[in-house]
Amino acid sequence: MPQRQPTHRMPTRFSVFPPVIKNLLIINALVYFAQIVAQMTGTGWMIQVLAAGALYPPGSGEALMQMAQLGGQVPTIFGRAAPEALVMPGFQPWQVLTYAFLHGGLGHLFFNMFALWMFGAQIEAAWGSRRFGIFYFSCVLGAALTQMMVMWGDPTPTLGASGGVFGILLAFGMMFPERRIMLLIPPIPIKAKWFVMGLGALELYSAATGTQAGVANFAHLGGAVFGFLLIQYWRGKLPAQPERTMRW
C-alpha cells in the first residue's frame, strides 16, 4: 500500500515570524502604544514608570536633582517635564534592558522593528530562538554599557532598540556576506558585507565628529562590537572556548 505524502500547508499570518522576532515586535509596539496613551492622558504613574525605563548613565542622578532644585525642566523620554511633575532617580540596573523597548517616535520604532524583522528572521531561523534571543539581548546590553561609559554623568536619557539591531545587522553581514540588499536611498543593490562595513564606518565617523546630534552612535557601535565578540566566541576564535563551537 503506497504511503500517503505529507500535505504542504500554507503558513498562517504569524508563522512567517520566528518566535523571538514576533514577541519583540509585539512588546515594542505595546510599549510604544503605552507611551502615546501616557503622553495624551498625562497619567502621572504611567509617565513615571515609562520614563524610568530609559537609560540614564551612572552619575546622572545628581545632575537631575540639581536641575529639579533649580527649577529647570528634567529631560525624559517625553521631551522635558517640569520637576514637580516628574522626578527621575537617574541610573537604575533594569535600564540596561528596558531602554531597548522604548522609542522616541513612530519612525524610530518602525525602522528599528523593520530592520529587526528583515535581517533577524533569517538569523533566528538559522540559529534557533534560544541562541538568537541570547545574541540580541547581549547586543542590547553591550550597547547600554558602551553608552554609559561615553555619557557618564550626562542626564540625557537613551532609548531604542538600535543597539540590538546593529548587532543583528553585523551578524547578517557575517552569515550572508554575498547576499544582495536593495537600498532605499539610493535604490541600488549592494552586498551585505559592504553594506554592514559602510554602515559601521558611517557610525564611527558620526560618533567621532558628533555630526548626528541626538543619535546614540556609540551605543550602535557597542551593540555591533559585542555581537562580533559573541559570534567569535561561539566560533571558538577567542581565548575563552565554548563547549561547542558554532558551524557556519
Explain the layout of strands and helices.
Blueprint: H1 19-41, H2 44-51, H3 60-69, E1 74-76, E2 79-81, H4 95-98, H5 106-127, H6 129-150, H7 162-175, E3 180-182, E4 189-191, H8 192-209, H9 217-234
What features would you describe in this structure?
This protein has 248 residues and is mainly alpha-helical. The chain has one domain: Rhomboid-like (Rhomboid-like fold, Up-down Bundle), CATH 1.20.1540.10. Helix content is 56%, strand content 5%. The chain contains 9 helices and 4 strands; from the N terminus they run αααββααααββαα. The strands form 2 sheets. A two-stranded antiparallel ribbon has the order 1-2. Helix 1 crosses helix 2, helix 6 packs across helix 7 and helix 6 crosses helix 9. It is globular, with a radius of gyration of 20 Å. The N terminus is likely disordered.
The name of the CATH superfamily reads Rhomboid-like
Report the total helices: 9
Radius of gyration (CA) equals: 20 Å
The helical percent reads: 55-70%
Written as H for each helix and E for each strand, in order along the chain, the element string is HHHEEHHHHEEHH
Give the tally of β-strands.
4
Which structural class matches the secondary elements?
mainly alpha
Q: Determine and state the CATH class.
A: Mainly Alpha
